[in-house]
Structure formats: C-alpha cells, structure tokens
Amino acid sequence: SLPGVGWKILAGLALVLGMAWYSISREERYLHLFPFPVQDDSMLCPPGEVEKKATLLLGNYTRDHPLFLQLNNYFWVKTPSPYELPYGTKGSEDSLLRVLAITSYSVPQSLQSMKCRRCAVVGNGLRLLNSSLGEAINKYDVVIRLNNAPVHRYEADVGSKTTMRLFYPESAHFDPKRENNPDTLLVLVPFKPMDFLWLETILNDKKRVHKGFWKQPPLIWDANPEQVRILNPYFMEITAAKLLNLPMKQLRKVKQKPTTGLLAITLALHFCDLVHIAGFGYPDSANKKQTIHYYEQITLKSMVASEHNISQETQAIKKMLDLGIIKNLTYF
Ligand SMILES: *[C@@H]1O[C@H](CO)[C@@H](O)[C@H](O)[C@H]1NC(C)=O
Ligand SMILES: *[C@@H]1O[C@H](CO)[C@@H](O)[C@H](O)[C@H]1NC(C)=O
Ligand SMILES: *[C@@H]1O[C@H](CO)[C@@H](O)[C@H](O)[C@H]1NC(C)=O
Ligand SMILES: *[C@@H]1O[C@H](CO)[C@@H](O)[C@H](O)[C@H]1NC(C)=O
C-alpha cells in the first residue's frame, strides 16, 4: 500500500530534519540563523570544559589535590612539603594540626556530588557598584567571595549567595553571620604560621595574640568552627608558579605574592566546570584618586606598598579570558 510507505518516508524525513535542526541550533556559529532565543548559552554547563582548557595553561594540571587541608595528612602521616607558607606547610605542621583538630576539612556533599559546577568568582572591584548583577550571581552553583567584601545592603549588585569566602586574619573584618549564609565555607588562606594561631585562639576563645600581624585582625569573630576550612596551599603554589611565573626555587628573593582574587580563580579552575568572574580589575593606573572597591574608600595608592603586582596579575587574567578558560561578567 503506497500511501503507508509515503507516510513512513515523510516521517523519516521529518526525523532527519529535526535532528539536523537540533545539532545545528546547538552550535554557536549558527546561532544568528535563528531569530528567536534558542537558550541562554552562557549558563550551560559542559562537564569538564574548564578542566580541558586549564590543561593548556597549567601544564601539569591535576584535580587530585584536596581543596582543604586534611587532618589525617598531618596526624597519621607526616606529609612533607617543599615550601613554607603561603606555598606549603613546611615548618608550620604543629600549629596547623591544632587548628585542624577543631575545624573541618570535608567538601559538603551538596557540592561534591554536583555533576557540573558553574562558578562565579566575585571580586571586590568598584565595577560591581550599580551593576545590578546580584540576581545573575545568585544563579551560579558556587559563588566565591573574597576577604571582607560585604553582601548586606549590596545584594542588588553583588548577590547574597556565598558558597565560599576566602580570607586571612587581617582581612577577616566581616561579620561571619551577617555577611554569609549559614552554610558558607569560611576558607582561611594561610600566609604565615601566626594565621593558624589566630584561628585557634579565636575559635577556642583563648588569650588573643596581638603581635605578628601587619594589621590588627578581629579579636571577636563569631563563626561556627564547622564552617571553617584551611585552603590547601597547593593552589597558592600553582598561582605563583604557573600564573605569575615566580621563581619557586628562590622564593626568599621574591617579595611578591598573589592576591586572594587570583588565588580564588586558580581554585575555581580546579573545582568548577564553568568559571565566570565579576568585579575584577582596577581603575587606570594613572587615576590614583579613584576608589577601587565597591564598599570602601581606598584608592590604588593603598596597593603600592602591598606585595602584589597588579599589572602582572591583570595580564594573567587577560590571558585566561583570551584563551576562553574564564569569562567576565563586568568590564575587565
Ligand atoms: C610535572 O609533574 C612531574 C611529576 O610530579 C614532575 O616531575 C615534572 O617536573 C612536572 N613538570 C612541570 C613542567 O612542572
Ligand atoms: C551609583 O548610583 C548612584 C545613584 O544612582 C550614583 O549616585 C553613584 O554615583 C553611582 N556610582 C557609580 C560608581 O556608578
Ligand atoms: C610587575 O611585573 C611586571 C611584569 O612581570 C614587571 O615588569 C614589573 O617590574 C613588576 N612591578 C613591580 C612593582 O615589581
Ligand atoms: C568583558 O571585558 C571586555 C573588555 O575587556 C568588555 O568588552 C566586555 O564587555 C566585558 N564583558 C562583560 C559581560 O561585561
């Protein structure tokens, strides 16, 4: 019966056309052929995407290193580290052990089990002010924030979700409860052995230590120890060695250290499948009076005495943007 065969041919043709349309519509270069929005492409999450691209930039790239330092690596076995803080734990093992005994080191199951992690690394830059990016930022699976950057009263521009906050004692001047969510991981970036001591005394309510910090860290810090983690210094090492090409064999000769911001991007490259950055970048270096943060009145001048090399870090971030490893949500 011919009509039956005809229908089958027609159905087959429709199927082939449908499949062709589907595969074409998913390719970015054909997107302009479709006058209607196909999908919000920027938020798709191709598993392994960042991993593939990061290998190009980071050479010996591996995701085998735990995000946070683990008690069993210092208690049962003595894990040797070639570097001292902030690039390793050599010489700081005892104070580290005391902190690991009272904090936690697991990646929460809700994060660990995610098939694909879309991450936003939110810098503290002035560009976030009046950006209205808050809602967009809250949509990411993982939001990483830095230091004392506030969320309270800035929700419309910076969002309110904080999965991890990277900080060190001198930058811990934030209200751990008000500026974070109940499940935010408070991730200490250890720069010196004293940093472990600060955390131990403040969490155990022991006598505070005042000397040995370049700025007074908070003396009261109402955080739940179960939310606190110690960042694996491996990520600081990779940031210095691979992104900034610092001479790791003669570290005593270099004063330069990576910023928490660049470190956070490195961390994201090792944990996420999609990495978008917002609020990164500084004003033109000629403009010494322009404030640099969205929440405080400090200028580029205040960075001059720091151990950071802003222009070199800018180049490193530009390179990652150019290679398509990361994307920017604000002008960079
Ligand atoms: C890559 O890792 C191996 C083993 O850890 C090491 O021997 C080698 O020097 C590394 N290569 C680079 C370019 O870092
Ligand atoms: C943000 O908006 C406010 C009010 O509209 C304005 O006064 C301020 O100058 C803006 N700030 C920036 C950095 O654009
Ligand atoms: C920062 O790094 C650049 C490029 O590596 C270098 O030319 C410059 O001298 C450095 N600046 C400072 C202040 O060390
Ligand atoms: C990213 O930065 C570039 C300039 O470096 C800018 O042209 C582009 O608009 C920025 N993207 C977004 C989404 O702001």
From TrEMBL:
Keywords: Disulfide bond, Glycoprotein, Glycosyltransferase, Golgi apparatus, Lipid metabolism, Membrane, Signal-anchor, Transferase, Transmembrane, Transmembrane helix. It catalyses: a beta-D-galactosyl-(1->3)-N-acetyl-alpha-D-galactosaminyl derivative + CMP-N-acetyl-beta-neuraminate = an N-acetyl-alpha-neuraminyl-(2->3)-beta-D-galactosyl-(1->3)-N-acetyl-alpha-D-galactosaminyl derivative + CMP + H(+); a neolactoside nLc4Cer(d18:1(4E)) + CMP-N-acetyl-beta-neuraminate = a neolactoside IV(3)-alpha-NeuAc-nLc4Cer(d18:1(4E)) + CMP + H(+); a ganglioside GT1c (d18:1(4E)) + CMP-N-acetyl-beta-neuraminate = a ganglioside GQ1c (d18:1(4E)) + CMP + H(+); a ganglioside GA1 (d18:1(4E)) + CMP-N-acetyl-beta-neuraminate = a ganglioside GM1b (d18:1(4E)) + CMP + H(+). GO terms for cellular component: Golgi cisterna membrane; Golgi membrane. Its main location: Golgi. InterPro entries: Glyco_trans_29, Glycosyltransferase_29, GT29-like_sf. The keyword Nucleus does not apply. It is an enzyme of class 2 (transferase). The keyword Zinc-finger does not apply. GO terms for molecular function: beta-D-galactosyl-(1->3)-N-acetyl-beta-D-galactosaminide alpha-2,3- sialyltransferase; beta-galactoside (CMP) alpha-2,3-sialyltransferase activity; N-acetyllactosaminide alpha-2,3-sialyltransferase activity. It is found in: Golgi apparatus membrane; Golgi apparatus, Golgi stack membrane. It is a single-pass type II membrane protein. Its EC number is 2.4.3.2, 2.4.3.4, 2.4.3.6. The chain crosses the membrane at residues 6-24. One of its GO terms (biological process) is cognition. Gene3D superfamilies: Glycosyl transferase family 29. CDD domains: GT29_ST3GAL4 (cd23982). Pathway: Protein modification; protein glycosylation. Belongs to the glycosyltransferase 29 family. This is CMP-N-acetylneuraminate-beta-galactosamide-alpha-2,3-sialyltransferase 4. It comes from Pelodiscus sinensis.
